[in-house]
TrEMBL record:
Source taxonomy: Bacteria, Pseudomonadati, Pseudomonadota, Alphaproteobacteria, Hyphomicrobiales
Keywords tagged on the record: Membrane, Transmembrane, Transmembrane helix
Keyword Nucleotide-binding: no
Protein name: Uncharacterized protein
Transmembrane segments: 12-31, 38-59, 65-87, 99-116, 122-139, 160-181, 187-207, 219-237, 243-263
Length: 274
């Protein structure tokens, strides 16, 4: 029957993945661009790219694969911290290519080194703490609390479509590569900050390097929390099951974002702040 043939078509799962991921990214992007740097960073640092990738990987691989991929993805999350630091430093005084290019090269170099390492939860945690701790210190001046609205005057829907398609293709590619790569390599690839890179590429020419660097600096704390979601997934995937681990990881991500929001509100209430 036509219905049976449709749902058994080999192209349907990739299509569903692409559409679902694209919708998530469009929603996150719309919120990020309508709000200020803090809210934009908070939304963009949520697992809008890696989250769907791990959900769909869980449909194809056993718990051991997911746990190993999450551990190496957690270690590779440190490379994203280095990416944010480099861009935050170069963004205000340079054009997109001269700020974004070195940041991507930094991620690639760090990820390559991490992919050849052997990681435990403790060593991966220490690496993330070192990188993100340094990032918080180095980018503190550009991550000042602010609830000011974004300087973007008009949001072009074509930008959202391009971003959604890029992330959807990325997730589909990760799922395809997971069939031939080891969980360690898959985890590192899945950790690539696709949503962040798409946001930077679109915002930098429109609002300027300073405003986009502000968002990147503010995102450092949020992306560290994303690493904790991967750590949670690694620790629980085999002992509690992948489904429970994914839900727990999502709860950790939401709790971390809520904690950042609470801390931000407290800082804004201090005397002398507006």
């Amino acid at each position: 029957m036509l219905t049976t043939a449709l749902f058994s078509a080999p192209w349907l799962p990739p299509l569903v993945r692409a559409v679902a991921t694209g919708l998530i990214v469009v929603l996150a992007s719309a919120i990020a661009e309508a709000a200020g740097p803090f809210w934009g960073a908070l939304v963009i640092s949520l697992p809008v790219t890696a989250g769907p990738a791990y959900v769909f990987m869980a449909l194809q691989h056993e718990a051991g694969f997911i746990a190993a991929a999450a551990l190496n993805g957690f270690a590779a999350n440190a490379a994203t911290g280095a990416f944010l630091i480099v861009y935050a430093k170069l963004g205000p005084g340079h054009g997109l290519a001269r700020a974004f290019g070195p940041a991507v090269l930094t991620w690639l170099a760090a990820a390559l080194a991490i992919a050849h390492g052997r990681w435990t939860p403790l060593t991966a945690l220490l690496l993330n703490c070192a990188v993100y701790g340094a990032g918080i210190v180095l980018c503190r001046a550009r991550a000042r609390p602010s609830y000011a609205p974004s300087p973007v005057a008009r949001r072009r829907w074509l930008d959202l479509v391009v971003r959604a398609v890029a992330v959807a293709l990325f997730v589909t590619g990760v799922i395809g590569l997971s069939a031939v790569l080891s969980p360690a390599r898959t985890g590192v690839i899945a950790a690539f900050p696709m949503a962040l890179t798409c946001t930077i590429v679109i915002l930098h020419p429109r609002v300027g390097g300073a405003a986009t660097a502000h968002l990147a600096s503010t995102a450092i704390r949020g992306v560290f929390g994303f690493g904790l979601t991967l750590l949670t997934l690694h620790l629980l995937a085999e002992s509690r099951g992948v489904a429970a681990a994914l839900v727990s990881a999502l709860l950790v991500s939401l709790a971390w974002s809520a904690a950042l929001l609470g801390a931000q509100r407290l800082r804004m209430r201090r005397p002398g702040r507006r």
